[in-house]
Amino acid sequence: MTVTAVAPATSSRSMGRLPKWALWALLVASFAVAAVVFAFANVGGDPADFNIALTCVVGMVLFLVLIYVVSSIAESRRHAMDRLMTALVCTAFVIALLPLVSLLYTVVVAGLARFDAEFFSSSMRNVVGEGGGAVHALWGTLLITLGATVISVPIGLMTSIYLVEYGQGKKLARGITFLVDVMTGIPSIVAGLFIYSVFALIMGPGTRLGIMGSLALSVLMIPVVVRGSEELLRIVPNELREAAYALGVPKWLTILKVVMPTAIAGITTSIMLAIARVIGETAPLLLTVGMVQSMNLNMFSGQMATLPVFTYMQAKYPGIPAEAFIDRAWASALALILIVMILNLLARVIAKVFAPKTGR
Q: What's residue 148's pLDDT?
């Protein structure tokens, strides 16, 4: 008869491992200690002055110290170093996320004061104090960005197709790649000055039109579209091209029917990201488009209003009462952030819809 020995149950501590709840307990304790310290430092002051961001940073630093000390005692030096490195990565993520969260929180809280129906249904024509809205700036932003997209996407896509499909190893392709890399780092104000100078030579100094803003934004968009589309076209498997060539399909039709549909999801995403990158530019639009207080939907006649410039003008030159101008600036900034968020969500949906279907 064989007797099987049953090992006694052991706890996580006796096995040299911290229980899972210990990490969370140390994290909560670290944040609690940091919150208490800053609460005592703010005694007698305004509760709104409590520094949440600094509390999070100090709490994460305390957590790093505690997790290393406790793990060294309860486990081993090797486990302690592993947990410390993991905590450092998480701390870096939290510190990087804090400015974004703080920015979004500030814009949302301050922007909701004027985020109403009047703000999206009226302009600033004949408004000198409270009231008014940014419908003229909203339409101007959409039209100018649409114009920049119509100009940039065909040029960017055809350039990337040439670089990937026709220009490999050629000096012209290397020169284009170099120029695209240089254009990627051009300051936005330089793009605005370039377009303004061209139109000043043709139509005279002081010319400001909506189409000028679209051209200035397209100078910034084209290199982003080229680089994004080029990388996506390069990852299309060559086997797909060779299979089409083996069937006698010409190269241009292979690109149109095989290569582009395969990469269309990623290309769409890169285009949306390029739009989101330029839609908030202020300096080139301030030079090329200007600012008006009423609606103007004609991009080839007169100045137009845009949300970035509208936000800048409301915050830079407040009138009486100043609070009304500041509230409109925050509401305009919130509207701009929401537009960018919608564009990014739309890019994800389009990428999912147009992604190549796999399986049966």
A: 93
